Amino acid sequence: MARPIPEGFHTLTPYLTVDDADGAIRWYGAVFDAVELFRLPWGDKIGHAEIRIGDSHMMLADESPESDTRSPRGLGGTTGTLLLYVTDVDAVFARAVAAGATALRPVEDQFYGDRAGRLRDPFGHEWMLATHIEDVSPEEMERRMAGMAPEC
Fold first, then answer.
1. What is the C-alpha to C-alpha distance for residues 107 and 114, in angstroms, rounded to an integer?
2. What confidence tens digit (pLDDT) does each residue in 85-144 have?
């Protein structure tokens, strides 16, 4: 009997739509050490592919406007951010920018206990890269946040 959650997967798995899935797979491999598990071609596009970054699977496919799936490039923006924990955020962030990512927020120590920065990959998806550096209770986070000016 099949498992309700496939072997090696977590309960939640990101599924990205990209313009140039082959390029994205190669870029995620070079920058985030992603391993391609398999791909299913659909004509001259990738209809479905699976990669693994660290202990997490991610699925992706080329955009298909005829089936109403569009990439951030096709939409002119994105509606979410992927959070990726890494061992050395400064090194991975620098590698991503050197490989063509756009830095949106520099790597800095954050009030909630992570050292983190945000970037946009060459395919339009936004990533928060982080290394956890301090365990902070929700109460302490709230106290620290109260002392900050809101970004408006």
1. 10
2. 999 999 999 999 999 999 999 999 999 999 999 999 999 999 999 999 999 999 999 999
CB atoms within 10 A of CB 70: 14
Six-digit token pair at 32?
């985030």
For residues 101 and 117, the answer to whether their CB atoms sit within 8 Å is no
What's the predicted TM-score (pTM) here?
Answer: 0.87
Which stretches within 40-127 are classed as H helix? Answer: 72-75, 89-98
Q: Give the tokens for residue 73.
A: 């490039």
Q: Annotate 40-102 with DSSP letters as a single string.
A: EEETTEEEEEEEEETTEEEEEEE-BGGGTB--HHHHTS-S-EEEEE-S-HHHHHHHHHHTT-E
* Residue 91 dihedral angles phi and psi, to the nearest 5°: -70, -45
What SS3 class is residue 105?
strand
Per-residue pLDDT tens over the stretch 17-47: 999 999 999 999 999 999 999 999 999 999 9
**Rg over CA atoms, the chain:** 17
Q: Is 133 helix (H, G, I), strand (E, B) or coil?
A: coil
